[in-house]
Amino acid sequence: MGDGVLDQYIRKYIILKLKSKPHRLHQEAKRFVSAKSQAQTLEKLIEHEWFTDEEMDIIKRGRNAKSYTKAKNTDIQTYRKSSGLEAIIGFLYLDQRHERLESLLERIVQYVEERR
After folding, report:
1. How many CA within 13 A on the CB side of residue 55?
2. CA dist 91 to 5, 22, 110, Å?
3. N- to C-terminal Cα distance for the chain?
4. Active-site hit among 3, 7, 75, 95
5. Catalytic annotation present for 3
6. Does residue 92 contact residue 104 with C-beta atoms inside 8 Å?
7. Boundaries of each RNase III domain copy (predicted)?
8. What is the pLDDT of residues 75-111, one digit of tens each?
9. DSSP 34
10. How would DSSP label each residue in 37-95?
């Protein structure tokens, strides 16, 4: 669920910001939704103590969950961190914590743009 929510948010952000063609949209979206980018963003959010204790528990469960798919183009640690970020996004979405979710998604965009 979290990966879908993040992907939709990022694509909307890019379309409204860049008003670009589909290929450029895809290239820009990869900067935000790749496992490497998600892992780096999660590390920064944790470093800044952005998450509550409850949210950290969700992240840890998502990060440590057995995965039946192989990580593509990345190592297992990076893949697990990105899974943790997707888990908290999915949790906030499903629990209808819209303000907190919006705040998290905005912060993700901010951090990725800063790395540019």
Report:
1. 19
2. 11, 29, 21
3. 27
4. 3
5. yes
6. yes
7. 1-96
8. 889 999 999 999 999 999 999 999 999 999 999 999 9
9. S
10. HHHHHHHHHHHTT-S-HHHHHHHHHHHHS--SSPPSSS-HHHHHHHHHHHHHHHHHHHT
